[in-house]
């Protein structure tokens, strides 16, 4: 099975929501959600240890049950913060980012590889991710999550104004279609913010 997915696109477009839904659809264990910058640690070896801890539950179950093990999903937000091109000085110029990338590669397809994991990486900057992570067998499925088009914005507005309409709080003069047209280049999160502000 695919071991890794990379979701990339602007902030506020629903990458985390999509990652969680993937886990539900695959009937996986509850996902572990890790924020990239939280993995980095100024102490030697601590960042690598943080990466090992992410995989500990999956590793334990895989040793006990082998291919009968349940699927463990690790959602890695802001992947670009720790998995920049090796040699670029990610992680404060100490080479910590390099060793974090190496740790991830080992778990995905190296000597310690696990067949019961799905790593979902998320980033706003795909161009900054180490190329080695994007090869087949690693974060091989790459999906761009872009800004919604006008129909998408209308759907988002309908979802976020649903309670207002149900409770007759929303004025009849509000034209959701016109609002959708006026919110070009807005992310889903920004549209939700517009509704909350109203």
TrEMBL record:
Signal peptide residue numbers: none
UniProt protein name: Vesicular-fusion protein SEC18
GO molecular function term, any single one: ATP binding
Organism of provenance: Verticillium longisporum (Verticillium dahliae var. longisporum)
Gene3D superfamilies, per the entry: 1.10.8.60, P-loop containing nucleotide triphosphate hydrolases (3.40.50.300)
Function description: Required for vesicle-mediated transport. Catalyzes the fusion of transport vesicles within the Golgi cisternae. Is also required for transport from the endoplasmic reticulum to the Golgi stack. Seems to function as a fusion protein required for the delivery of cargo proteins to all compartments of the Golgi stack independent of vesicle origin.
Keywords in alphabetical order: ATP-binding, Cytoplasm, ER-Golgi transport, Hydrolase, Nucleotide-binding, Protein transport, Transport
Record carries keyword Cell cycle: no
């Amino acid at each position: 099975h695919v071991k890794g997915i990379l979701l990339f696109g602007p902030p506020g477009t629903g990458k985390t929501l999509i990652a969680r839904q993937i886990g539900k659809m695959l009937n996986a264990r509850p996902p572990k959600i890790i924020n990239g910058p939280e993995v980095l640690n100024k102490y030697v070896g601590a960042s690598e240890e943080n990466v090992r801890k992410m995989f500990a539950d999956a590793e334990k179950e895989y040793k006990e049950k082998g291919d009968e093990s349940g699927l463990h999903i690790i959602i890695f937000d802001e992947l670009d913060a720790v998995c920049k091109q090796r040699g670029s000085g990610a992680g404060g110029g100490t080479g910590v980012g390099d060793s974090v990338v190496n740790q991830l590669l080992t778990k995905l397809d190296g000597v310690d590889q696990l067949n019961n994991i799905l790593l979902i990486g998320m980033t706003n900057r795909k161009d900054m991710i180490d190329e080695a992570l994007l090869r087949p067998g690693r974060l091989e499925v790459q999906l761009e999550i872009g800004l919604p088009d006008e129909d998408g914005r209308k759907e988002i507005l309908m979802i976020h104004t649903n309670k207002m309409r149900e409770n007759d709080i929303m004025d009849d003069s509000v034209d959701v279609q016109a609002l959708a047209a006026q919110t070009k280049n807005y992310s889903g999160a920004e549209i939700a913010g517009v509704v909350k502000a109203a």
